[in-house]
Amino acid sequence: MKLFSSALRPLCLIIILAVVSSCGKQNNTLVVETEKSIINEQAKTLHEELARRSKEIVAAMDKDQLAAQVIMTGIDGHVDLSEPEIKRLAAVPAGAVLLFKKNLTADKESVKNMLDKLLDVYGETKPFV
What we know:
mainly alpha; about 5% strand
């Protein structure tokens, strides 16, 4: 005795496949939602840590340093900081330092040395480069 007639077999297979595939989707949805929840919690923790650290940095700055955070400046030298630039950056530590093509034309070691020197001028509060 045949369970299904030959005409109903394709329909039965489609129904079985639909049921089986929907079971997998529910499981995958649960996994994806769990992963999203974990990522959101990690993002929240990171955001709180960054906010805490930002408040510490701002609290340690005087009014002149806070005002200088909105200033962007460039470097005149090709791959080195001149003494006048070092003095200027030490006096008014700009919040951002723009590097142009002329500043990056030398070999990697020279550019790295320039950046190290630049960051040394700033001390703890580093600029956005």
